[in-house]
TrEMBL record:
A Pfam short name: UbiA
InterPro entries linked to this entry: Protohaem_IX_farnesylTrfase, UbiA_prenyltransferase, UbiA_prenylTrfase_CS, UbiA_sf
Function of the molecule: Converts heme B (protoheme IX) to heme O by substitution of the vinyl group on carbon 2 of heme B porphyrin ring with a hydroxyethyl farnesyl side group.
Additional remark text: Carbon 2 of the heme B porphyrin ring is defined according to the Fischer nomenclature.
Biological source species: Gemmobacter aquaticus
Protein name: Protoheme IX farnesyltransferase
Gene name of this polypeptide: ctaB
Reactions this protein catalyses: heme b + (2E,6E)-farnesyl diphosphate + H2O = Fe(II)-heme o + diphosphate
Enzyme Commission number(s) of this protein: 2.5.1.141
Keyword Thylakoid: no
Membrane-crossing residue ranges in chain numbering: 31-48, 54-76, 97-117, 123-140, 152-174, 180-204, 225-244, 250-268, 289-307
UniProt membrane topology term: Multi-pass membrane protein
Length: 315
């Protein structure tokens, strides 16, 4: 599928022999780490105890499903990855891994992960994992990403399913707690990625990806960052009043949401001349804080569950 020129390049990038790390990179390990963590939290805070070996097996296959999605996404997006500074050194655009290899790996891991999770946990968990892979690869990567500036808004659902899958692994059903964990990630995704897009906009322009910054401009994007951060807050706080919440979680969530709202407000206030003059320092800071925001919210769920185990947490 790739053309090699006289300089030993594949579509403008140097070729090389693939190593084990290149195939690991296809699975998007940084994204997978978020999948593993949130799925594990969803499983551990559920009201039904799960044997440690079963829990490990479930999280392993959820991780493999997330990795399969990453490999299939890289296979499909190889053309735009070549022109984006952030992604041009990935295994396929660099020529170290052939597209067909990524496709085969993604399909194989998809089938394996869904089948094994269904056996290790229950059919509903396996079905949710299958739908998550389908949603990320087909709905987001193949359809939304290149066709609408709402790609991140709708496509964010793919990254929001892991804690729900973890919960279903333990309970076999979906409850309000699982939905709120889903909504926490779903509503967090747009302001998180739009903060990134504000200082990485040139990449999306070169690749022809209709990110909101490209189609509607940075002023509109700044408005959206603030609005979606405001909409996120009620879902984050509502989880504090369910069985997975409590006063400790609520205190942490209040502080984190105050920080995120302040960051979104600062982004909204800025004009492009100021942002470019300081190298988008505020946008970069808010993007980094958004990562901490999500990690600490799910850590707070775990802390609340641990406190309840000692008879100290909950309402």
């Amino acid at each position: 599928m790739s053309d090699i020129n006289a300089n030993g390049e594949v579509n403008g990038t140097l070729t090389g022999e693939a190593g084990f790390g290149d195939y690991v990179s296809l699975l998007k390990p940084r994204v997978m780490s978020l999948v593993v963590f949130t799925a594990l939290v969803g499983l551990l805070v559920a009201p039904v105890p799960v044997h440690p070996f079963v829990a490990f097996t479930c999280v392993l296959f959820i991780a493999l499903g997330g990795g399969a999605s990453g490999a299939l996404n890289m296979w499909w997006d190889a053309d735009i990855d070549r022109v984006m500074r952030r992604t041009r050194n990935r295994p396929i655009p660099s020529g170290r891994v052939q597209p067909g290899e990524a496709l085969g790996l993604g399909i194989a891991l998809s089938g394996l992960s869904v089948m094994m999770l269904s056996l290790a946990a229950n059919v509903l968990a396996g079905a949710l994992l299958a739908f998550t892979i389908f949603f990320y690869v087909v709905i987001y990567s193949m359809w939304l990403k290149r066709s609408t500036p709402q790609n991140i808004v709708i496509g964010g659902a793919a990254g929001a399913f892991p804690p729900m899958i973890g919960w279903v692994c333990a309970t076999g059903s979906i409850s309000v707690e699982a939905v709120l964990m889903f909504m926490l990630i779903f509503m967090w995704t747009p302001p998180h990625f739009w903060a990134l897009a504000l200082f990485m906009n040139s990449d999306y322009e070169k690749a022809g990806v209709p990110m909101l910054t490209v189609t509607h401009g940075k002023r509109v994007t700044r408005n959206h960052v603030l609005v979606y951060t405001i909409l996120l807050v009620p879902f984050a706080l509502a989880a504090g009043f369910t069985s997975i919440g409590g006063p400790t979680y609520l205190a942490i969530s209040l502080a984190l949401n105050a920080g995120f709202l302040w960051g979104a407000w600062r982004i909204w206030q800025r004009d492009e001349a100021t942002a470019e003059a300081d190298g988008f320092a505020t946008e970069k800071a808010v993007f980094k804080f958004s990562l901490l925001y999500l990690f600490l919210h799910f850590s707070a769920f775990l802390l609340e569950a641990a406190l309840k185990g000692f008879g100290l947490g909950g309402w």
